[in-house]
């Protein structure tokens, strides 16, 4: 059964209630448009849709859409390369919900794909192979022995579970696939390390090795040339830089202090010369964005940390044209929000725009996705 999601959240409930007693019911929110931005709200089981202005600012209010029937806790999301699908990994129900992205930016929900055996526990990260034919989730396993689940994406865009394998690390929070499609990297926060896997032609994974990076290894990002990996060590307030060999075997090059507290989400520019990092600060303290320059030999901080205007910055994304940056604010004690920033030609982060509400609570981990063009 396919379900077209029109609008959700409190605004939709109010509109339905007024319909019976008033002809002046509020107009339905406008469709976000083909350049929509999507944000998952972990604590409210919803996805927020935002339209996008030409200058990169988010259009408000967001449209709030349900994910599943409750207690799904959508934790992560990724958009297909052709922009036609949004895949949402659900922490609570241990599955992946596919949404078709319509031409107006609205979402059509399809039945969730159940995690392949052995059943994944608390999926927390999600990634697609470069050709879009294989989907992977990092499974936190409540801080125990982490796993990675593999789904094959059929020609109709729907994912189908293939296998779940050990991550060879504990508390696997996130994963990244190299742009050349040869390597998958997991960040294992509870054991403070990363694991690498080779990717076969059919998308299946073979574990290569596990390398320590630092306490609370939370997110990983791979450079566009697939030669290096950057890892945020959230409980060590540091960033690790590793060389990734042709055999998918990483070698630690350096670990550099991060100038803000609890680095988590990380995104690289298309050129791979800068990294932007969202700093969580325990979800209650002021979030910050930190910037690093990236070269073939190492990384170094670039400029001061920039306050997000919200608490618990975690999910982070960069616009396709490299002119705008976005982060989701977890806001443990309040409503979720998104902060956006203009980026200068040299990559420096400009003055943040005021945070805008997502219409839900606690957008978590890889919670924000942007259009590919």
Strand content: over 45%
- Rg, rounded, reads 19 Å
Categorize the overall geometry: globular
Percent helix? under 10%
Cα end-to-end separation: 31 Å
Spans with pLDDT under 50 lasting ≥5 residues?
1-26
Secondary-structure-based class equals mainly beta
Largest sheet: 6 strands, antiparallel
DSSP E strands, number? 31
Number of helices: 1
The assembly state of the depicted protein chains is single chain
Average residue pLDDT: 91
How would you characterize this protein structure?
Residues 341-373 are annotated as: Disordered. It comes from Amycolatopsis carbonis. This is Beta-propeller fold lactonase family protein. By secondary structure, this protein is an all-beta fold. Strand 3 and strand 4 (58-66) form a beta hairpin. The model is unreliable at 1-26 (pLDDT under 50). The strands form 7 sheets. Strands 1, 5, 6, 7, 8 and 9 form a 6-stranded antiparallel β-sheet that branches. Strands 22, 23, 24, 25 and 26 form a 5-stranded antiparallel β-sheet that branches. It has a 4-stranded antiparallel β-sheet with strand order 4-3-2-31, with no helix packed on it. The chain is built from 1 helix and 31 strands. The longest helix has 11 residues, at 9-19. The chain has one helix at 9-19, and strands at 3-4, 37-41, 46-52, 58-66, 74-79, 85-90, 95-101, 107-109, 113-114, 123-128, 134-139, 145-153, 159-170, 172-177, 183-188, 193-199, 205-212, 217-222, 228-233, 238-244, 250-257, 263-268, 274-279, 286-294, 299-301, 306-311, 313-318, 324-329, 337-342, 356-357, 368-369.
